[in-house]
UniProtKB/TrEMBL annotation:
Pfam families for the chain: 7tm_4 (PF13853)
Keywords, in A-Z order: Cell membrane, G-protein coupled receptor, Membrane, Olfaction, Receptor, Sensory transduction, Transducer, Transmembrane, Transmembrane helix
Protein name as it appears in the record: Olfactory receptor 13G1-like
Keyword Transport: no
Transmembrane regions: 25-45, 57-76, 96-117, 129-149, 201-223, 235-257, 269-289
PANTHER family associated with the record: OLFACTORY RECEPTOR
Compartments it resides in: Cell membrane
Recorded topology in the membrane: Multi-pass membrane protein
Amino acid sequence: MMNGTLLTEFLILGFSEMPHLQVPLFLGFLCLYMAAISGNLLIMVTVSASPALHTPMYFFLFNLAMVDILCTSTILPKLLDTMVGGRMISYWGCMAQLYFFTWSLGAELLLFSAMAYDRFVAICCPLHYGAWMGPRVCAFLAGLVWSISLTNTSVHTGLMLRLPFCSSNVIEHFFCEIPPLLKLSCAPTQLNEAMAFAADVFLAVGNFSVIILSYGFIVASILRIRSAEGKRRAFSTCSAHVIVVTMYYSTVIYTYIRPASSYSLNKDKVVSVIYTSVAPTLNPLIYTLRNKDVKVALRRLLFCC
């Protein structure tokens, strides 16, 4: 027995129902992981080495890159291992994966709100930007992001540790996530589901509402700009953030707003791929390819090297 559970390890199904696609899937996820790590590390190095990027916007982008590295490094190495035969994961390994993934998920959702607030102040209240987004404010917001997400994952992991798993040990997913784990418990999971729902309402729905409200004010402010060039530049600074936020929040809300009993193996795995693998890989591409300042800093960094 291990902490109230009769199971000492779990079997992760992964994508075993598609044996004919194992090789292309393995190569695809390997490329996603390499792209996510290299792209986000490049952003971190570029922001750190470029004084022109030492601004609140890129400070939060630096934090986002750290979160994306944490997320992909928690999920993808084990996924690649399952695709070459290592489908077993220990009980504590599963809980650790749940802990770090939930931590990165909460931090990413909160960081999007912090980035939306930064754009709101920059566009709607430019005269107050220096005071409202000073170094102390940015450090406070970043500390709030990491501490709230850490508290959130501690609560969910703690609640999961109290559940006994004494029936099936087969996880119908490619990693240890809350919904498929709750389906395996032989004890009532109402408290876990209620806390997951509450966290989703606060972290996903609540933050998404704040972001939508912020961009409502931003769009209204942009439309008051007289010059077409001014409008274009203002929209370009926000469009990348809107793309990422829409993709990320929609998939997270879909996954966690429902009871565990409605979990669907194939459909939910596809949705999870978006916020565990695709979004962390696309973030550095979206923010660099659509951002003139980052592209200039990258050229200078590569030229100097």
